[in-house]
Structures are given as C-alpha cells and as structure tokens.
Design goal:
mainly alpha, 5-stranded mixed β-sheet, 3-stranded antiparallel β-sheet, about 5% strand, elongated
Length: about 675
C-alpha cells in the first residue's frame, strides 16, 4: 500500500501527513471524465435511488409500506450526503457492511468474511467515517431477529471485529485511520462547540428548521418511542445511540448516520413483528386515507424541493453544476497567471476550485478545514478567516495571550492568492482598503491578488474600468435565463419561466461589499419588480443605509437626502432587529420629513422597483426632487439623464445642501 499510495496530501502544502481516504474522489473523477457534469448527475441519482430501493427491497416483505415511509425519512434526513462526495460513499459502505455482516451472522465462514474485509479496506481508503462499520459488525450479531436459531460464538464475533479494524488500517495513514475517523465522528470531544459552530461539524439542530433537521427529528422520535414501547434488548438501544449521537452532534455525519438509524429501526420492527400489530390500527384509520395523505405529502415535498423552497435547500430542480460552483470565469482570470507559492480559500469550494484550475501544484492551499481538524489546527484556520473577514490586519494580542492579524500570517505562508466566495460581503468589505484587491467582479469565487505584485497587478488594474462601468456607466443588469446556463439546465425555470435569483442576490452582495452601491441597486432592480423576497428587500435596505450614510458625510448634516431618508422610513416596518443593527448606524432626525404626496408616491414606486413610474411622478422642481430624480436615473442605467439633472440642480440651487454630493456625483460620471 505504501508503494501505491501518496506519502502525503495530494493537493495541499501545509503538512507531510498522509490522508487515509485518498481515493475518495476517484469514482466522481471518472464520471466527470467520461460524461462531464451529466456523468456526475447520473452517478448521483443512480447511487441515491439504488440505495433507497435496496433498503426498501430488504424490508418491504415484512414492513410493507412502512419501509417506504422510513426510506422517505432517510431521503429527507440524508440531504447533505446526496451529492457526489465521499459522504455518499459512506452511506453506501455502511449499507453494504450491514448486508454482508447479516449474511455472515447466518452462516459464519471465511467465504462470507472476506467480502466484509474488502468493503472495510475500500471504505477506509475512500471515505472518512469508516469507524461506523466497526459498530455495525460489533452490534449487528446481537440484534434480535438477525439469527433465527443459535447465536454466533463470541470468539468469532471478536475475530470479525479485530479483522475489520485491521482492514481499516490498510491506508496511507496506517493505524491512525480509526482515530481520524473517530475525530470526524465526534469532533465535540476534541474542540469547543463555539469553534465547531463555524464549521460543517456543528451540532445538527443549530441549523434551524431545515428539511434534514425535520427528518432527523421525526426519525429520532419514532425510533425512541418504538424502543420504549417494544424493545426487550439493550443492544437495540445501544445500536440506535451509536448512530443517533453523531447525527445529533455532528452535521457532517448526518447522511450515513441516518442510514444507520433507519436500519436499526427497521430491523427492530421486523424482529418485534410490528407490521402484524399495526393491523389493529386499521380499524381506527382508513388505510386508503392514510395512503392518500402520504402520497399527497410526497407530492408537496417533491414540488417544494423542485422549486428550491424547502428550508435550508435553495437548489432548484435542474441538471448540471450549480452556478455558485461554476469555475469558468475564475479559470479565465487566474488560469493564465503563473503563480508560485500558496493560496488561501475562504471555504472548501474556493479551495477545490483552485486545486482544479492549478493542477500543476505550483500554487496550493496550505490545508483544508478537514485537515486542520485532524491536525489540531482548526483554530488556526478559522481564526485566519475571522481576521480576514473583520479587517484584523496587523498583529494584536488575543484574549488568550496569542497574537492575531492576517498580514504576518499570510506572509509567513508565502500567500499569493486569496479566494473569497461571491456574496461574502463581510470579507469583501474588510479587504476594500487593504493591499488585497479583486481581479474579477462576477466569478463564483472572487480572486484577490496583492496590489503592487508583478503577477496580480495587471489583472487588478484591468478591473478598474469595469468597476466604473457597472457603477457609473450605461449598464443594466439582466436576470439569468430561466433555462439556466450551458453548465446547468434549470428545469424548474423552464417549467415555470422564472429565473434562479440566487446568483443575482450574491452579485448584489458582492457589489455592496466593494462599495459599488449603484451597481448593487441595478442588480436589485429587476428583483424588486419580479420577486421582492425578504433577501432582496434586505439588500436594498442595506444599500440605502450605506448611501444615506455617505450623503450625511458629504452634506455635513444629520439628515441625508429625502430620497434615502424616506425610503428607509418606508422600509423600516419590513426590517427585523438584525437588519436594523446592520450597516452604518443612522440617527433619526428629530424634524419630520417634509415631502409632498407626489414625492412619497414616487419613493413608494421606487421601493417596489417601478422606477419608470417613479421618475414620471417626480415632477417637482425643488432640490430634493431633482436629486432623487438624478439618483434614480443613474440607478436605472441612464447616466446621461442623471448628469443633466445634477447639473440643473447645481445651477438652480447653488447654495443648497445637496450641491456638494451632486457635484461629486457629476464629477464621477463619464
């Protein structure tokens, strides 16, 4: 194995330690090479569909339609694992281990033992949660209903456990493999919950009311009630807790643990002949009615899933790779640049994109968060992300006595490139006045280069005219096509004629983080017209707050223009407490706003996205009306009209308080 496997991480530069699951991406890579993104989609649907079908096939004879109900709960609960990632492999290997171990229990022997060991060896080299398999081989022989007659000798069971653990060690990590898997199953034993809450290893119920949390809650409650009422063996309770505890405490392990919980529940129902007892309930509840209610629930769940409206699952029904993961623009930006050194990605998606684009390994990430988790350096990586997001540039002492500040830390890493997800406005704003400057405006991941550095500076300078164009020139944002992109066919959009709004909202956040407020409002304009969701209203209000704050600084008074002040007043009733506290803090003026009815109607139309009607309604000739008209003209993509209106305001009211911001806007227009 040591001759075949790599001696250290393949894609990162921060540690010489090898990785156990080094083959985890191989099936998905072959699918991508053979059939592109369609290959990944086919593999995903085939793997999930076949897994649930085999699950139902195993228990449908004894449980009838209850097997389908449990399979649906697994489908809901295991949502995070239903992607072409190693977590999907964890689900499959767990199910195969259960099936093969059950066969071995009925007929112990070498010919039934070898397939189990082969599965363990493949599991350990392909997916990280292989320790769950040891729990299966340790507990399954003792579960009721597995054996019809005599039990398996304890000596043979112990031998199976020992050989399974040894099979897990046939990886580049050797005897550390079970420990690595244990850390990833129970990270709360090694790290503080406050640290894990920033990662995918946070407790599952901290995710709020999402579809997977609902599924986990139902599955857990049903299993607990069944074990309390029917169970006669402590082994069933232990087996349930072995899968339930990591599912409750670690979101990353939710998928395979949901499979394990469902297998324990189904096996217990079969052992205690629950289906036979369930016949008694038919007198109280009509089977036909129950069947129709269940089918209706499945249809509603499928409809909301296709629309991307399930809690915590915004992906719509489609075929291909999500726009948020499209690497084409990022590849065009950093692909031709011959970087050497390291890079830092704010998350696993930016890190993966870098490794895919820069396959020559001349520039590599230092480590992923999962590697940091296993190496005891999770705080180091998360604190660096926090320092970048909060603008903590220079060295300062932390409360624990250590030193923070990203400048020295990135320089010590020889960091040449920063990768920030599109829409991470907090980090983008924190980097605005730093030496790190963006090299793209609309990539799914925004690459940042060090200004003044030979390789990145040309791209940074090249982007400056593009910033001015989207923010000040005659540019209008168009919503994505309902049919999707060449990389992702949006089937829900084709069916309903509606666009996927997620990329537009992320783009507005990015523009706001870069202080391109007019560009952000131009992106939000069609969203206000067609889909004024709470997210859209939030972004619109934050842009208004930022612009109002700028106007207060320019005017030198406590009150911004009536356009911003009245818009914020109208939006105040739609804002939650978090939104009120977000952005610049604006003191309310003690004097009431003096506006005409026509002006108020115009601002109401402006808030609703009907900017054409707003401009027609602004028929007055006072300074506030002219200023509002000019700003809406500019945000509508008409810089020529805005320039003319600003000039008219300055000429008619040379001593007005809005002359200074109007002149600044006039000077910035082409």
């Amino acid at each position: 194995m040591s001759d075949l496997a790599p001696s250290g991480p393949i894609l990162t530069a921060g540690s010489p330690l090898a990785e156990a699951d080094w083959l985890g991406g191989l099936p998905f890579y072959f699918s991508l090479q053979l059939a592109g993104f369609s290959g990944l989609m086919l593999l995903k649907f085939a793997a999930v569909g076949l897994l649930l079908y085999l699950f139902m096939k195993r228990f449908e004879e004894s449980l009838n339609w209850l097997a389908l109900v449990i399979a649906v709960l697994v489908l809901m609960t295991g949502v995070p694992a239903w992607q072409p990632t190693p977590r999907l492999l964890d689900c499959w290997f767990l199910f195969l281990t259960w099936i093969l171990t059950a066969r071995w229990c009925r007929e112990p022997g070498p010919h039934k033992l070898i397939p189990i060991l082969v599965v363990f060896a493949l599991w350990a080299n392909s997916a990280p949660l292989c320790l769950l398999g040891v729990a299966v081989v340790a507990l399954l022989p003792h579960l009721p209903g597995i054996l019809s007659e005599k039990s398996v000798p304890l000596k043979q069971t112990n031998l199976l456990i020992l050989l399974s653990v040894l099979a897990l060690m046939l990886t580049p990590r050797g005897w550390f493999t079970p420990f690595d898997s244990f850390v990833q199953l129970f990270p709360g034993l090694f790290y503080h919950q406050a640290l894990l809450s920033q990662t995918i290893w946070q407790p599952t119920f901290l995710n709020g009311v999402t579809i997977e949390v609902i599924g986990l809650s139902i599955l857990s409650i049903v299993t607990i009630l069944f074990l309390i009422l029917k169970s006669t063996s402590w082994v069933e309770t232990v087996a349930f807790l072995v899968f339930a505890v990591p599912a409750w405490t670690n979101y990353d392990s939710l998928g395979p643990c949901a499979i394990g919980m469902a297998l324990v529940l189904s096996q217990s129902m079969v052992a205690h002949q629950f289906q036979a007892d369930f016949v008694k309930w038919k007198q109280a509840v009509s089977p036909t009615l129950a069947r129709y209610v269940f089918i209706l629930g499945i249809l509603i769940l499928s409809w909301k899933s296709a629309a991307g409206s399930l809690p915590g699952q915004p992906q719509r029904l489609g075929w291909g790779i999500a726009p948020e993961l499209d690497i084409s623009i990022l590849n065009n930006t950093i692909g031709p640049i011959d970087y050497k050194g390291t890079a830092h990605g704010m998350g696993i998606a930016p890190t993966g994109m870098l490794c895919w684009i820069k396959a020559n390994h001349k520039i590599q990430p230092v480590r992923t968060l999962r590697q940091a988790l296993l190496q005891g350096r999770l705080f180091e990586e998360l604190s660096l992300n926090e320092e970048l997001s909060n603008g903590w540039i220079f060295q300062k002492p932390r409360s624990d006595g250590s030193w923070g500040g990203w400048w020295v830390r990135l320089k010590n890493r020889d960091c040449q490139l920063l990768l920030v997800p599109n829409g991470d406005e907090k980090t983008i704003r924190a980097l605005f006045d730093s030496r790190w400057q963006p090299m793209s405006l609309d990539a799914s991941v925004i690459p940042y280069g060090w200004s003044g550095e030979l390789l990145s500076s040309p791209k940074i300078v090249e982007l400056l005219p593009a910033k001015e164009f989207v923010n000040r020139d005659q540019w209008i944002y168009s919503l994505p096509s309902p049919a999707g992109t060449p990389e992702c066919s949006d089937w829900w959009g084709i069916l309903t004629g509606t666009s996927n709004l997620t990329p537009a909202i992320l783009q507005a956040k990015t523009f706001r983080g870069m202080k391109l407020y007019t560009a952000a409002l131009r992106v939000l304009h069609p969203l206000l017209q067609h889909n004024p969701s709470p997210q859209v209203i939030r972004e619109f209000q934050l842009c208004q707050k930022e612009l109002a704050y700028q106007e207060k600084l320019n005017v030198g008074q406590h009150t911004p223009s009536s356009l911003r002040a009245f818009a914020l007043t109208q939006l105040a009733g739609q804002a939650d407490e978090a939104l009120v506290l977000a952005g610049p803090k604006l003191k309310r003026s003690e004097e009431p706003l003096r506006t005409s009815d026509a002006f108020e109607r115009a601002i109401q139309n402006y808030i609703q996205g009907d900017w054409e009607t707003a401009l027609k309604t602004l028929s007055g000739n006072d300074s506030e009306t002219l200023y509002a008209k000019a700003q809406i003209q500019l945000e509508s993509g008409n810089p020529g009209g805005a320039k003319k209106t600003f000039g008219e305001l300055i000429q008619i009211y040379p001593n007005d308080r809005l002359v200074v911001p109007s002149q600044q806007m006039l000077d910035s227009l082409p």
